Amino acid sequence: MVFLNGRNSVICRIGPLMKCITLSLFAFALLTSGIASSAQAQTKQRPPNLELPIKCTIGMDCFIQHYIDMDPTKGAADYRCGSLTYDNHKGTDIRLKTVSQMTTGVPVIAAASGVVANLRSGVKDQYYSDYSKKKKKEIYNIGLGNTVILKHSGGWETYYAHMRKGSIAVKIGQKIKTGDVLGYVGMSGLTDFPHVHFELRKNNKRIDPFSGLNVGGKCGSIKKTFWSDRALEQLSYQQTGFMATGFSETRPKDRKDLESGTKNQETLNAAAPTLFFWSYYIGGRKGDTVRLILQGPNGATLAQSNAKPMSKNRISRYFFVGVKRPSTGWKPGLYRGEITINGKQRNLKDNAVITVK
Fold this sequence. Notes:
By secondary structure, this protein is mostly beta strands. It has 5 helices and 21 strands. The strands form 5 sheets. Strands 4, 5, 7, 8, 9, 10, 12 and 13 form an 8-stranded antiparallel beta sheet that branches. Strands 15-21-20-17-18 form a 5-stranded mixed beta sheet, with no helix packed on it. Strands 1-2-3 form a 3-stranded antiparallel beta sheet.
C-alpha cells in the first residue's frame, strides 16, 4: 500500500505485522519506473503464441508431411522420433492433398501478429523435379520460393514459404494481425508438392514449435510448445496420412498423377479394358507391410497385391493393383478397394460403380 505525504512516499506491506518504509518522491518514481520497465521488457521478449499458418483442417484436407529434422547426424527424425522429415529439414511442411486444391485456393494466414519484414514473389508454381538440369540450379538457390517473413517482438520471426505465384497479399512494413491472409498455398521454389513451409526463428535461429528445441535437438524431448491450445487441437501427431485413394480405368503413372486430383473416377465405363485400385500415403516406416485388395460386386477378390516389408522409412509411397476386363464384361454393381498396413485397415473406398451402357 502506498501513502503520499508531501515530498515523501510511504510504502507499507500489509500482513500480520505492517512494515513501512519512507521514500522520497524521486526514489519512489525510480522504483515504480523500474518495475514498469521490467514488465515492459518481459512483454517484448515474450514469444508468439502460434495459431495454424494455413486455413484448412489437419487430417482431412491437409496434412503435416514434414517436421523439423531433430537428428544432428546424417539420419533424420522428427520431434517424436518418427520418419516424417528428412535430413536437415528446417521447417514444418503442411501440405494439401491435391494440386487442384492449390488451384482453387487455400489461404496462408499469419500465425501471430507482427510486421512484414520481407517478402519474395514472382516464382512460378511447378514440380521441382520437372525443371531442366540448368534451371534446377537456379531454383535450388531460390529455395523457399514465394515467401513472407513476419517480425515479432523480442527477436522472433515467422516464415511462410512456397506460396502461389501472384497470391501474396501484403507489403513490407505492413502491420499484420493473427489470422490475416498473407497469400495462398503454392508450389514455388524447391518443392515437389503443394504446401506451406512454416518456420519459427529467434534471433535467426530456427526453433521447433512443437518441442521448443533448436534444430538438431534431441527427438522425443519437449521443452515447450509454442502453439496455442486451439492450434494443438488439430496438431495431434499422425504418422500415416492418406493423400489419395481411389479407382481409375488406367494405371496411375506416378505420385504426381494421383496428386492431380483428377485421376479418381466414381463411375467407370463398362467398356474399360482395365480397372485399377490405388492409394498414395505419407508416413511409411521401415518394416511396414502393405496389402491392397480389389473386390467385385459379389465380394469376390479380383486382384490383390502383397508388398514386401519396407526396407527403410519412406515419407511418401503409392501402390496400385489392377485387373483386366473379364471376357464376359464387367458386372454392374459396387466394386470395393481396401488397403491394410501391418494387418490394420487404413482406408476403404467403395464409390466405384461400374455402369453398363
